Structure prediction request, 381 residues.
Amino acid sequence: MIIGSSGRNPTIGKERMNGLVFTAPHEIDFRRDLPEPVVVADRDAIVSVRLAGLCGSDLHPYTGREPMRAGTIPGHELVGTIIDAGNGMHAFSAGDLVLAPFTSSCGRCHPCRHELSARCREGALLGFRPEVGELGLDGAQAERVRIPLADSTLVRVPPMVSEETALLLGDNFTTGWFAAESALGVRYPSRTEQAKEMTIAVVGCGAVGLAAVSAALQLGVARVFAIDPIEERRRVAATLGAVAAHPDESAAVLARDPRTQETGGAMAVVEAVGSPAAQGLALTLVAAGGTLATVGVHTQSAFSFSPGDLYDQNLTYRAGRAPVRSILDRLLPEVVAGRVAVPVEAMISESAVPLAEGPDAYRRFARRAEGVRKIVFVPGS
Ligand SMILES: [Zn+2]
Ligand SMILES: [Zn+2]
Prediction:
């Protein structure tokens, strides 16, 4: 691979790399013969992956809930170094350490200019190719990955930010932060005063839920409830400062707290799972006049409540993919300044897992094996 060759790489299509491939639901293969990604457009960059995350939303195609084309390289969370770029890429140089949000974004369209990079008109989701059509991108669970619209998608990793922190900023932490802001109706660093009077319940304590718990606490929320059926996840949430509860006990726990007793539930609820069951539970925990924010990917058409249920409690419902690239413009400087901390230890349960162990990692993650919260691959090893 020629560094900084602006796409004029004479070995295009000839080299091979290691990576994971989705072949069918419940089947991920490790392969040593994947084609190298190459620059195909002026604004592309090729990134040599140093860390690649395994995310809860990778499980949607894996478990068959969301159809994906066989042969797709999965993964949308990465930190790596730029090794090649098209002629239209000016903001970065070869060798720059970067993180990528999970969607590409042009930085120019209306959604991009209005803090909604996740809905960029030219954007695409990394590590996902639909069963039909040409859209979609191979992902980061491989040695190298192509990032389109690289100038406006990639973010340089500041020297004082660790690579694991940067990986979490590209998706899970920022998604959890967005969920907490959405539920609380605040926008850090301004408009945070009202958070101090509020209570929040977070349903689901995987990496994103734990990030939402951490975000709510850092936003100064008076009481944070963390709800998950897995004891170990509740324990981690409690170490962050939340009141942890099993789903079956959660209504009773909220009813005992003087703040939620008075309001009749939590004023803000984050649903960080993406299932009708979690949604239904979240609805039972929110107080009249409160806000329910969901960031779980909803792949099932079944909805456990209706607009009428929202009407009956004067609720606000906020849903959608986190606009990570947009939010990083204001969140990353706070992390660099030490005003926002990313709870790396709480969120990542396994780091430095070789890609060759990817098939096993998917299996363990999918069945929520004991202690598994977030797995991070090291593609270069
Ligand atoms: Zn993700
Ligand atoms: Zn755009």
